[in-house]
């Protein structure tokens, strides 16, 4: 902790963060790390949960546009679009008969609905998605499938691919086997009674069945009960609804560079959150980091002035249910050239690695990034940067260069998509390290005169 | 961890735990630590939550009586009584207007009920119980009081006295000030969205008002929102009911000593749990520890035989809502002499301290206890042992000697009375240390021929 503080102070000195040197900003007195903290604090406290397509998400857009203006951003705009939303109803599950007891459950996004009174059916335990896939088609008629799995924490979050498929693909597999409904072990690494929600990827034309996730302790319970060999029966109530053409929108704002005719650097996060928590790590922190760093980088030009290029901030809407905001941004802004794109959407733990998709011709820029991030404890990685859901569409459309500042994900899936995603889970020191890493990065890429080639 | 294992092995050797030496027990092959783990695993898994006065508590009694018989206990009996129960209804709270958002809430035991549609009223923030006490009588008419506090973890659990009063006494103070309802910060030390329930001590004649507890992150949210100065308004729905003359009961069982005419040693726990979790640390672990240790002590007599005195196990009912089981035990068994009483009801973390209420004439016995517990990392303390809720009445009636084996409570109030009180929170290694400490203690007190005087 102490050594991190020392490093941050050193970085702040190098980057000339002294407030007196940011005279053009309305809140010039607040150093960048405090801007970030205040932003995520107020968004999560005063708006709270902001599910995609909901009135709360609309309040978040109004709040964000007002705050960005207050912070000195220009060309601030709300860019509306419509999307398919999921509105939670009653979520309830209880074993009946043997080991009768309630289970902590959440509906998954785009779940089908049970009747108000729920359904009662045998629960069939599958230790993995592969085990369910191996079941004969039609063998689950009139039954509820339970899919277990063995997700464990990883620093780079790579467990979310394979184990996340239990949630994304598992419900569709259950439909193929004829199941009445499906329950999964939460895609998460904690041991709290807070189930993890998240979206289902139904194939086109599939009629959704009720689909929920129980917390890890409840899944442990089901695993132990299945091992007794006694038949299990579940009473399940999930009454949420799928809503077409729900109103959503993106919020954009700019800090114009010395040469506004040059393509801007795009930095993104998403403004919506799942409804269970207040969206602190997913992704209030991301919005706080990109906005705080964009402001912090305003002294990165020659003589502590503005950078060469405009930095455009995108607070995307409706990321959680399928990246609608990123798609809408690419549709609206696809004809404007961009210099580079970045996204922050993996919590608020420290940046530990930097990767890019730069072509060899940009090796020198990459080397400067690596050198600038080294004092913050960031190492270069071998992978290929891809941005993320909010910038993926514009990156693909324009083959943009990308820098990924990978955050430590060891604890991310303890909180991800749960009621526990709240402000207290953010460590102000690691949030400040993120802002410093982003600011160091923006100081380089927003002052780069020539285009950076992507590979 | 490793050194603990070494110590336990040493203790086991000293206490002659070798299974072959327990020939009279049905499950002689299972060493005592496994008996304890299996007991808490199966109680929390197969019975699950077992609130006082509920059908689930009745199932727990049947389960416990059958398991005790299976383990070789004799004179196993269910001793019924009736009590005042609280049956949870719908628990729901949401801010409306400014910062509209749901809050994670639980009703407190013996809360008054709102109408099914809930109530909506201004929420008035009080930073402490003392601040509420200082409000003028009648000043909260038509309003909901929120009582904050600053509980922090302590090893000996001493925060539960003063901060627990916010829950026990706070609702009554709110009534005196004319409040329509009351919400408190959970009496707990964690940062999860799992509110802590627990019982209210209404004074005689007071008409209960709706009373709930929000989780710590929600209380943090209310604290921040109150600091904005904006008026807050809460929509509160708590529909649980108070049920008079609900059926409950104790379960008792004995392991007869070499001289069954001598007064028995009483070891107790409680079988009921709050409904939110599965009652693993509160108090499935306690029942597992006392039963496991009683069995383990069956080789503590001369030549590895039975101890001198009978050990009687009491699995009390209805502790959580006011110690009804302990009272019922004292009424039924108050005329039978007892040698000594002990209770385990503070989780499953390691025993760190031993205290007694022995008179100076029993200093030698106490010294032997201290010496026996020393290899397990247990230190002698200066306080006076008092047993607890399940043995308090019989101790008071008979002025019994008591040994308290204090468990480390640093993390206890992270889980206490929450949905998170589940099996995964028990470390088998510390559970085994508890069993070893109890077994060492019983090996001494159940082989003591003369009475031990209490001070």
From TrEMBL, chains A, B:
Domain Peptidase M28: 250-437
PANTHER family for this protein: CARBOXYPEPTIDASE Q, PROTEASE FAMILY M28 PLASMA GLUTAMATE CARBOXYPEPTIDASE-RELATED
Classification of source organism: Bacteria, Pseudomonadati, Pseudomonadota, Alphaproteobacteria, Sphingomonadales
Protein's recorded name: Carboxypeptidase Q
Signal sequence region: 1-28
Keyword vocabulary terms for this entry: Carboxypeptidase, Endoplasmic reticulum, Glycoprotein, Golgi apparatus, Hydrolase, Lysosome, Metal-binding, Metalloprotease, Protease, Secreted, Signal, Zinc, Zymogen
Compartment annotation: Endoplasmic reticulum; Golgi apparatus; Lysosome; Secreted
This protein's record includes keyword Ribosomal protein: no
Quaternary structure note: Homodimer. The monomeric form is inactive while the homodimer is active.
């Amino acid at each position: 902790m102490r050594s991190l503080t020392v490093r941050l102070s050193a970085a702040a000195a190098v980057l000339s963060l002294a407030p007196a040197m940011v005279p053009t900003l309305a809140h010039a007195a607040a150093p960048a790390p405090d801007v970030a903290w205040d932003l995520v604090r107020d968004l999560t406290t005063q708006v709270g949960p902001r599910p995609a397509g909901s009135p709360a998400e609309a309040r978040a857009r109004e709040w964000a546009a007002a705050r960005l203006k207050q912070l000195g951003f220009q060309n601030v705009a709300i860019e509306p679009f419509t999307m398919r939303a999921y509105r939670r109803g009653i979520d309830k599950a209880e074993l009946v008969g043997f080991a009768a007891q309630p289970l902590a459950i959440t509906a998954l996004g785009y779940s089908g609905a049970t009747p108000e009174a729920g359904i009662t059916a045998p629960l069939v335990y599958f230790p993995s998605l592969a085990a369910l896939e191996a079941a004969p088609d039609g063998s689950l008629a009139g039954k509820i499938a339970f899919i277990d799995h063995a997700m464990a924490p990883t620093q780079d979050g790579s467990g979310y691919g394979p184990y996340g498929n239990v949630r994304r693909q598992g419900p569709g597999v259950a439909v193929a086997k004829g199941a009445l409904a499906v329950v999964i072990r939460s895609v998460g690494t904690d041991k709290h009674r807070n189930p993890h929600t998240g979206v289902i990827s139904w194939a086109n034309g599939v009629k959704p069945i009720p689909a929920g996730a129980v917390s890890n302790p409840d899944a442990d319970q089901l695993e132990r009960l299945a091992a007794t060999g006694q038949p299990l029966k579940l009473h399940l109530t999930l009454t949420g609804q799928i809503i077409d053409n729900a109103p959503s929108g993106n919020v954009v704002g700019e800090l114009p560079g010395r040469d506004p005719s040059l393509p801007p650097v795009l930095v993104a996060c998403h403004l919506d959150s799942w409804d269970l928590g207040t969206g602190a790590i997913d992704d209030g922190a991301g919005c706080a980091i990109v906005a705080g760093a964009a402001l912090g980088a305003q002294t990165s030009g020659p003589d502590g002035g503005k950078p060469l290029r405009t930095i455009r901030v995108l607070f995307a809407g409706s990321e959680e249910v399928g990246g609608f905001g990123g798609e809408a941004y690419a549709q609206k802004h696809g004809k404007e050239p961009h210099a580079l794109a970045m996204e922050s959407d993996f919590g608020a733990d420290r940046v530990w690695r930097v990767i890019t998709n730069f072509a060899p011709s940009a090796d020198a820029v990459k080397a400067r990034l690596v050198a600038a991030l080294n004092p913050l404890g960031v190492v270069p990685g071998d992978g290929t940067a891809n941005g993320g859901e909010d910038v993926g569409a514009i990156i693909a459309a324009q083959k943009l260069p990308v820098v990924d500042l990978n955050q430590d994900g060891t604890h991310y899936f303890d909180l991800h998509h749960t009621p526990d995603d709240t402000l207290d889970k953010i460590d102000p020191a690691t949030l400040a390290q993120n802002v410093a890493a982003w600011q160091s990065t923006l100081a380089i890429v927003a002052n780069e005169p020539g285009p950076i080639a992507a590979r």
